[in-house]
Amino acid sequence: EIVMTQSPATLSVSPGERATLSCRASQSLSSNLAWYLQKPGQAPRLLIYDASTRATGVPARFSGSGSGTEFTLTISSLQSEDFAVYYCQQYYSWPYTFGLGTKLEIK
Amino acid sequence: EVQLVESGGGLVQPGGSLRLSCAASGFTFSTYWMHWVRKAPGKGLVWVSRINRDGSSTTYADSVRGRFTMSRDNAKNTLYLQMNSLRAEDTAVYYCARDILTGFDDWGQGTLVTVSS
C-alpha cells in the first residue's frame, strides 16, 4: 500500500497571502495524484487531478505541481472560502490512499 | 447535474448491521466505477470499497474485508454498502463517490454511521 504523507498538519496563513501544501508518496506515482478540499459538514471537492490539472470550475489561484513522489498544492492569494482541510490522494495503484490532510487556518 | 444522495446511516450497537444506499442521478450511472469513502470524527478520509461498472468486481480495504459488501443496481441507479459485524471504529460519515479514473469528481453529502452501545 502506498503511504501518503502531508505536511504540515496545520498551516496558518493570512487572507491574501500564498499557501503551499506538500504531499509525499512512499513510492513513485508518476502524476497520478489528486487534491481535494473539504469544509466542515461538506463533501470533499476535487480540485486538482493528474497532479497539475484543475478540475472544472476550480479558480486559477489553485495550482498543483510535482511528479514521482513529491507534490505541491499552491493557493496564490487566499480567500476566506479557502480555509478548510486539504487532502491528497494517489490513484496510481490499489488501494487508492489519501493523506491525513492539511488544515489551512486563518492566521 | 450530477447528484449522489446517501441514506441508511444511524445508530447501531456493536456487532449489528446497516445497509447504506446511494441514489445517483444526472449521469449514466452504469458507465462509472463507484466507491465508498469514510471519514471518522477528527480523522482523515479513508477509502472503503469500490465496484466496477456492472457490479461483477469489488475491492475492499483490509479493515472492512469480510464484513462489508458493496453492490449496485444499475436499473435503479443505486449503490449499496451492506455493513455487518460493525465495530466502534466503523463510526464515521460514509460518502459515495464517482470515479473518473483521475480521482473522484462527485461525492454525496454523506450519511453518519454511529456504532455504540
Q: Main β-sheet of chain B, in a few words?
A: 7 strands, mixed
Give the helix level of chain B as a range of percent.
Answer: under 10%
Please count the beta strands of chain A (DSSP E, at least 2 residues each). 11
Number of helices of chain B: 0
What does this structure look like?
The complex is a heterodimer of chains A (107) and B (117). Chain A is mainly β. In chain A, 0% of the residues lie in helices and 50% in strands. Chain A has strands at residues 4-7, 10-13, 19-25, 33-38, 45-49, 53-54, 62-67, 70-75, 85-90, 97-98, 102-106. Chain A is globular, with a radius of gyration of 13 Å. The relative contact order of chain A is 0.34. The termini of chain B are far apart. Chain B contains no helices and eleven strands. In chain B, strands 2, 4, 5, 6, 9, 10 and 11 form a seven-stranded mixed β-sheet that branches. In chain B, strands 1-3-8-7 form a four-stranded antiparallel β-sheet, with no helix packed on it. In chain B, strand 9 and strand 10 form a beta hairpin. Chain B has strands at 3-7, 10-12, 18-25, 34-39, 45-51, 58-60, 68-73, 78-83, 92-99, 104-107, 111-115. Chain B is 0% helix and 52% strand. Chain B is an all-beta fold. Classes of the chains: A mainly beta (107), B mainly beta (117). Chain A binds chain B through residues 32, 34, 36, 38, 42-46, 49-50, 53, 55, 85, 87, 89, 91, 94-101, and chain B through 35, 37, 39, 43-47, 50, 59, 61, 95, 97, 100-105, 107-110.
